[in-house]
Design brief:
Chain lengths: ~110, ~110
């Protein structure tokens, strides 16, 4: 019996050693240490959570939320620290997408038949 | 420099050896070998693809599609082979969700601060 969990745990440890992970961790700490950036991130995360919940429940979003959804990404981009955080998130996402597509190859093969 | 891709490839090879993977592969082959089951699966996959596309484009689903979305899961459950396929998909999904939550733990930790 293969222990796929051991390998998943190895991958987890290796992820912690990648530059992508460590740069994201650092960028996130820098945001939290800055009052303005932390406040923008907090607003952004609250909005994302609210929109997610409404998407699941089928509830309609308010006009205020729709406006925030337009303004907050602009605020995130305008602040140096939250902008850096988003860039580092994207870099880590690229790595994770590649890792995931490797792992999922066997499953994809089944459905390609 | 850690080579996380080597470990992802190892995980990919190990996934192919799990009972969950091999049982799904077998169940899928059994469906394809049976005319009725293959036809139900084909209809189901076509509908899923159509609904996915419309969800992304924001296009409204037709009344026919809404009706199919109610009927096809019932058909899938009523056919022994497609039912078995769905059960095996669910078993593999449980494994993959566990593997994914292990790998994503470091990322989750960053945002929990």
């Amino acid at each position: 019996m293969v222990n796929i969990y051991d390998t998943a745990n190895q991958l987890e440890r290796e992820l912690r050693e990648t530059s992508q992970y460590n740069e994201l961790k650092e960028a996130h700490a820098e945001v939290l240490a800055d009052e303005d950036a932390a406040s923008i991130l907090n607003e952004f995360q609250s909005l994302q959570q609210a929109l997610h919940q409404k998407q699941h429940s089928g509830e309609e979003i308010t006009e205020e939320e729709a406006q925030e959804a337009q303004v907050l990404p602009i605020k995130m981009n305008a602040n140096e620290l939250t902008k850096k955080l988003m860039d580092k998130e994207q870099a880590l996402n690229t790595l994770l997408t590649e890792v995931n597509s490797i792992i999922m190859k066997p499953v994809q093969e089944i459905y390609e038949q």
